């Protein structure tokens, strides 16, 4: 398989702390790659480097053979058009209809005729199971359906890559399973390379082709879900089983929770 996103020795320092401390990973074309790890361990930060939203202190991110980190803004904007992003909150505009929300990126980045845009939008809504909902306001929809609208918008521009930050945050387990199904569907039907940040273990084992566990700024382990499930690493074992006892200390967990509250509404949208 061809490597399509390559993260190399990535270091990001916030307030003197090495939040990412030399992250290395290669993502292959067409796979669903999951990044898991405790709250505040740097998952969103890593994802935002991959989308070019922030720059590292050192190291680099390659998209294909292009160095995202060294690019000027113009080149970066261009490559970003091959990215679809699904934010932690759906970030839909409530004064627009479902159709208008999904059409936004097409109106912003293309000169397509409104009739063509309308056809594209309907196709995308169809793909996420929302045919017929074009004229509703997002506020009239359930959380799961809003999520679908967000996904339709994320794929509006026919991206090659799609990045999800905690796609199932705040959803009940059934809706979460539906969203997971959708992630898999889109990946398969549109031949997308998907990068998913989550700490939902059920999701990890449902959707991942490969998983990386991030811990203390580094990739602790990377492998197929089966390999992760049977990991010999006590930190990985504690994390996937959510055990209180183990090498991950309570202090770390508490710090993570406090940080998460502070970072609320963060994720890719910053
Ligand atoms: N813009 C920022 N400024 C300062 N600290 C940040 C910033 N973004 C993230 N951090 C810190 O980096 C750490 C990792 O954050 P984040 O990547 O959001 O974690 P995760 O997504 O794994 O919960 C946290 O300690 C957080 O407070
Ligand atoms: Mg996060």
Write structural notes for this entry.
By secondary structure, this protein is of the alpha/beta class. It has two domains: 3-82 and 159-172 and 188-269, P-loop containing nucleotide triphosphate hydrolases (Rossmann fold); 86-157, no CATH class. The protein has ten helices and ten strands. It has helices at residues 43-50, 73-80, 98-109, 114-127, 143-154, 173-189, 201-207, 225-229, 234-241, 250-262, and strands at residues 3-14, 17-28, 32-36, 58-63, 66-67, 83-86, 161-165, 193-197, 210-215, 218-223. It has a six-stranded mixed beta sheet with strand order 6-7-8-3-9-10, with helices on both faces. Strands 2-1-4-5 form a four-stranded antiparallel beta sheet, with helices on one face. β9 and β10 form a beta hairpin. The model is unreliable at 254-270 (pLDDT under 50). Residues 14-15, 19, 37, 39-45, 259-260, 263, 266 line the site of adenosine-5'-diphosphate.
